[in-house]
Amino acid sequence: MKQIVKLLFNDTKHPFYEKFYNTYKNFEIVSELEKNKWYIDSELKIPFYENSEEFFNALLDANSHEMKYTLFADTFYSKKEIEKDIHYFRLYPSYPTELEGTTEKNYGTVLKGGCLCCGVGSKAFGDILIDRKLVKKCKIGCLIPDYVVSKEIKEIIESNNLTGVTFEECVKDFKGRDMDDYYVMNINNILPPMSKNTWFNKQVLEDKCPICGHRTTYLRSDIRYDKESFETNFDFNLTKEYLDNDWNQYIIVSAKVRQVFKENKIRIGFKPVTLL
């Protein structure tokens, strides 16, 4: 396990950039990352070990020359660590409506719960309505704000006794046309707050909901939990935090889910959750 910070520079034409790049480009760490197929080389990004003296010196240097940058933290693991030592993963669903910029509500789905002002925390009330073409190739997807699965995935989850998710509602075409079977994922177990060592980027106060206080928040690191507070007996869980422009909770699953999907050749992204 290695914790990394990446400096992403907004302007490589800055007069000090070339000298900065040549000074702080750490080829030892780059070679280590490339060895694990984790790091894609880019002139815009310079990786450092988190909390290293080199990293803090680089920040001082960049700030003193008024260089504009964004920081991203991450943790990468060897293949052996991922297979043996990682017990929970973030699951990455597809977003079928993303290109259209729509949500299930745009197709007539009724939502309930959540904030009466900004709507954060709301979920579908009954079946979800959607254009059938959008989910035609979807295995696990987010129709915003709800997660849905194909019949194949539902049967895999149920036949392997994966816990923490049920499927009471269905997905239907908003024009009433026939479509393949899709089901709404009801995931009720909410994890504790992420560790204070998780990196977030919260937007300006003007973005804050006057009722619930929610602000658009972006994750700037891997998901991190404190071992002493992290506890769950379920295979499917949701983060307490509502994140990104979708104002949605992430799906956190057990290593068993990853293994079952791998055995059934379900191609979907998983990223290790770090326990500190």
Structural write-up:
The chain has 6 helices and 20 strands. The chain has helices at 17-24, 27-35, 53-64, 79-84, 151-159, 255-263; strands spanning 2-9, 45-49, 69-76, 88-92, 111-112, 123-124, 128-130, 140-142, 147-150, 165-166, 171-173, 182-184, 186-187, 200-202, 217-219, 224-225, 236-238, 251-254, 269-272, 274-275. The protein is globular and about 60 Å long.
Which stretches of 5+ consecutive residues score pLDDT under 50?
Answer: none
Mean pLDDT: 92
Computed Rg: 21 Å
Q: Give the strand tally.
A: 20
Structural class comes to alpha+beta
Along the chain, the helix and strand elements come as: EHHEHEHEEEEEEHEEEEEEEEEHEE
Shape: globular
Classify the helix fraction into a percent range: 10-25%
Main sheet?
4 strands, antiparallel
Strand order of the largest sheet: 17-18-4-19
Query: What is the terminal-to-terminal distance?
Result: 11 Å
Percent in strands: 25-35%
Continuous helix count? 6
Strand and helix map with partners:
Layout: E1 2-9, H1 17-24, H2 27-35, E2 45-49, H3 53-64, E3 69-76, H4 79-84, E4 88-92, E5 111-112, E6 123-124, E7 128-130, E8 140-142, E9 147-150, H5 151-159, E10 165-166, E11 171-173, E12 182-184, E13 186-187, E14 200-202, E15 217-219, E16 224-225, E17 236-238, E18 251-254, H6 255-263, E19 269-272, E20 274-275
Parallel strand pairs: 7-11, 16-20
Antiparallel strand pairs: 1-2, 1-3, 4-18, 4-19, 5-6, 8-9, 9-12, 10-13, 14-15, 17-18
